[in-house]
């Protein structure tokens, strides 16, 4: 096993990344493994608990197995409990946070077709299972566009691991088709923003607890992305989707700034084999195709959106990428996925999506921002590829894009400002130093 | 009878120049051992301690201990003395006046100035003997320059002293200014040397206003000695030739937050 070999902790995030399966599947795998081996006491298991506290607060916490029962007492209602990680020894649960980067790719939706699930998950992650109660309403709204996906999703109960796996394969196929390029690269950058995001979300989470109403409203806010999606499925929604997704996983990997580089090495070898398995699996391919068909059936709109997306995705993906550059990327994790992507793209017809991948490393100075209709729009130099006389012509175009994904970026400068202002106040504080008098020091004689 | 004669009036002139900006009046304690002045500025932030030993004078006689309150307007009198003149201070035992007598080197000119003494409240502070964490000796000119330069940037200068040397910094609206002085490697030229004698690092902030008064004593001595301990007044000492010294004490500035 992995941990016996490397003494690593195996978190569901890591597992999902390694096996390229959905996080939920990874959790399932972990818990099954745990059930099987817990008698042997070889491993230490860490659980993630999410629930309502007795004082109406909400809490997400990571507890060791031995602390589980005491931790549970804190909650009036536990919304979610799953295996967070398995490892041989874990002196400090906080180490888990340092241990690795979560992989956004498998946590959420890559493409529109998946959004039903994402939606649900997002809420799960943001609000915990409480959202489940409220979920039904929003779901209906979204369902019109994604009813099929929804039904499929429902069919896949976590126990049916096999099915789930297949499904994940499907998803994977689509990831390759659509968002993968963007998503993968986004992962690392987003991960860096995790702290900001997660803190935000935590705050939200706790503040929300008091009133269900509030929760609902915010949820709607989150959903609006998807509603929009249903209607337009424009790049904006794609962005928001991405964002939603990233925040999902971000929420989870609270402080995932990590040793991706380290992992990259492991990843290389592992993935090679993994890839093989996946590829040779005819079933999966079959599934993939099935899935595609289904989607093409779902509605023309989607097709339109896709084609539109194809045109514009370069911009959006670029936008995404540009943002990315702000964050520190680990090369290993980056190059790895892109290899992947290329491979898979060879298999699949929709290769133009790979274009954005080449356009990514660009830009630099913070984008110009303007506000329009209350939406932030960012001026970006975007490489647009036009088809002219049968040639693909790439031009640099200034485009104002509204990006909900901006948020993390906004928060960063804000933070900086804060720091600046703090230091400023410090300076001022220095200025405000009080002059003491000698009488304080020398006594009259 | 009190009589003290200095061949070089220039020294006394410089001493008065060194204190006239801080003080308006001061009590001169004359005793057999010499003349001592201790006076605080009106804000009680700084203190001047002047010590002129009797053996530094060319002629010194003090039959009774005298406490003479003098207005620092005496600097005006001293301005009347030529730089080469010999100066003699003279007072009777229960004086109401003090007389300054300036003699030109060739004895051809004799000028007498009489100044009224003033009654002053005795406000003598006991200054405890302290061993300071950091004692820095540096060229007084350098110190003057730094204080002048940095006072353009902020109201106060932070002295940070470590083993490597001493760092002066000031922060203001325009920006920040920092001057670092490293300890001189070879102390061949004593007057130019920067010597840091440090027990533990200190960091203190002082008002520029007072420092700029202190540096008026620069002409008295090529070297200035800064003694610092955390949260204790700075001592800025200039030697006055062989006669004595002038010490400035300056209360540090403390963060308002701490105070409140």
TrEMBL record, chain A:
Gene3D superfamilies: DNA polymerase delta, p66 (Cdc27) subunit, wHTH domain. Residues 303-312 have a biased composition (Basic residues). It is found in: Nucleus. Residues 150-163, 271-282, 289-302, 411-429 have a biased composition (Basic and acidic residues). GO terms for biological process: DNA strand elongation involved in DNA replication; DNA synthesis involved in UV-damage excision repair; nucleotide-excision repair, DNA gap filling. Residues 231-249 have a biased composition (Polar residues). InterPro entries: POLD3 (IPR019038), POLD3_sf (IPR041913). One of its GO terms (molecular function) is DNA-directed DNA polymerase activity. One of its GO terms (cellular component) is delta DNA polymerase complex. Residues 136-374, 403-431 are annotated as: Disordered. Keywords: DNA replication, Nucleus. This is DNA polymerase delta subunit 3. It comes from Frieseomelitta varia. The lineage of its organism: Eukaryota, Metazoa, Ecdysozoa, Arthropoda, Hexapoda.
TrEMBL record, chain B:
It is found in: Nucleus. Residues 1-123 form the Proliferating cell nuclear antigen PCNA N-terminal domain. This is DNA sliding clamp PCNA. This protein is an auxiliary protein of DNA polymerase delta and is involved in the control of eukaryotic DNA replication by increasing the polymerase's processivity during elongation of the leading strand. NCBIfam families: pcna (TIGR00590). PROSITE patterns: PCNA_1 (PS01251). Keywords: DNA replication, DNA-binding, Nucleus. One of its GO terms (biological process) is response to methyl methanesulfonate. HAMAP family: DNApol_clamp_arch (MF_00317). It comes from the Eukaryota. GO terms for cellular component: PCNA complex. One of its GO terms (molecular function) is DNA binding. CDD domains: PCNA (cd00577). Residues 126-253 form the Proliferating cell nuclear antigen PCNA C-terminal domain. It comes from Frieseomelitta varia. Belongs to the PCNA family.
């Amino acid at each position: 096993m992995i941990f016996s070999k490397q003494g690593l902790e195996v978190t569901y995030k890591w597992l999902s990344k390694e096996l390229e399966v959905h996080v939920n599947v990874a959790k399932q795998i972990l818990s099954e493994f745990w059930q099987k081996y817990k008698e042997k006491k070889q491993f230490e298991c860490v659980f993630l608990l999410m629930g309502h506290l007795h004082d109406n607060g909400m809490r997400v916490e990571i507890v060791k197995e031995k602390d589980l029962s005491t931790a549970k007492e804190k909650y009036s209602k536990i919304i979610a409990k799953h295996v967070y990680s398995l490892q041989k020894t874990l002196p400090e649960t906080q180490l888990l946070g340092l241990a690795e980067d979560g992989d956004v790719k498998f946590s959420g939706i890559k493409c529109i077709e998946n959004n039903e699930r994402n939606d649900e998950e997002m809420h799960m992650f943001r609000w915990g299972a409480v959202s489940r109660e409220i979920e039904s309403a929003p779901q209906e709204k979204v369902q019109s566009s994604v009813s099929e996906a929804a039904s499929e999703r429902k069919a896949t109960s976590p126990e049916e691991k096999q099915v789930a796996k297949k499904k994940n394969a499907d998803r994977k196929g689509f990831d390759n088709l659509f968002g993968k390029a963007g998503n993968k690269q986004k992962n690392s950058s987003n991960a860096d923003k995790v702290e900001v995001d997660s803190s935000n979300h935590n705050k939200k989470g706790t503040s929300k607890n008091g009133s269900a109403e509030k929760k609902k409203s915010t949820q709607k806010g989150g959903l609006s992305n998807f509603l929009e999606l249903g209607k337009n499925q424009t790049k904006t929604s794609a962005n928001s989707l991405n964002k939603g997704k990233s925040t999902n996983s971000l929420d989870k990997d609270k402080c995932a700034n990590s040793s991706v580089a380290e992992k990259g090495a492991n990843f290389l070898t592992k993935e090679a084999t993994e890839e093989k398995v996946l590829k040779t699996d005819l079933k999966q391919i079959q599934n993939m195709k099935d899935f595609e068909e289904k989607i093409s059936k779902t509605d023309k709109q989607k097709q339109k959106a896709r084609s539109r997306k194809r045109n514009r995705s370069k911009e959006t993906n670029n936008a995404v990428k540009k943002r990315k550059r702000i964050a520190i990327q680990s090369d290993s994790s980056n190059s790895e996925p892109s290899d992947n992507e290329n491979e898979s793209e060879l298999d699949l017809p929709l290769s133009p999506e790979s274009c954005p991948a080449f356009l990514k490393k660009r830009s630099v100075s913070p984008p110009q921002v303007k506000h329009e209709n209350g939406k932030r729009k960012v001026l970006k130099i975007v490489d647009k590829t036009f088809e002219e006389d049968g040639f693909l012509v790439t031009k640099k175009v200034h485009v104002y894009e509204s990006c909900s994904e901006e948020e993390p970026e906004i928060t960063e400068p804000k933070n900086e400002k804060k720091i600046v202002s703090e230091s400023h106040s410090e300076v001022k504080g220095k200025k405000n130093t009080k002059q003491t008098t000698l009488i304080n020091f020398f006594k009259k004689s | 009878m009190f009589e003290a004669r200095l061949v070089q009036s220039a020294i006394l002139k410089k001493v008065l120049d060194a204190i006239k900006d801080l003080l308006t009046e001061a009590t001169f304690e004359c005793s057999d051992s010499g003349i001592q002045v201790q006076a605080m500025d009106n804000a009680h932030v700084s203190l001047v301690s002047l010590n002129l030993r009797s053996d530094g004078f060319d002629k010194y006689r003090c039959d009774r201990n005298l406490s003479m309150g003098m207005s620092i307007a005496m600097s005006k009198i001293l301005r009347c003395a030529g730089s080469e003149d010999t100066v003699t201070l003279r007072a009777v035992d229960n004086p109401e006046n003090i007389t300054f007598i300036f003699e030109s080197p060739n004895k051809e000119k004799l000028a007498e100035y009489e100044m009224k003494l003033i009654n002053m409240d005795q406000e003598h502070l006991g200054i405890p003997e302290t061993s300071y964490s950091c004692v820095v000796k540096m060229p007084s000119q350098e110190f003057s320059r730094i204080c002048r330069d940095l006072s353009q940037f902020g109201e106060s200068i932070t002295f940070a002293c470590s083993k490597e040397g001493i760092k002066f910094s000031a922060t203001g609206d325009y920006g920040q200014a920092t001057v670092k002085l490293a300890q001189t490697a070879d102390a061949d030229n004593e007057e130019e040397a920067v010597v840091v004698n440090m027990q533990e690092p200190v960091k203190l902030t002082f008002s520029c206003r007072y420092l700029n008064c202190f540096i008026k004593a620069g002409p008295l001595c090529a070297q200035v000695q800064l003694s610092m301990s955390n949260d204790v007044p700075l001592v800025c000492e200039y030697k006055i030739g062989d006669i004595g010294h002038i010490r400035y004490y300056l209360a540090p500035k403390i963060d308002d937050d701490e105070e409140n």
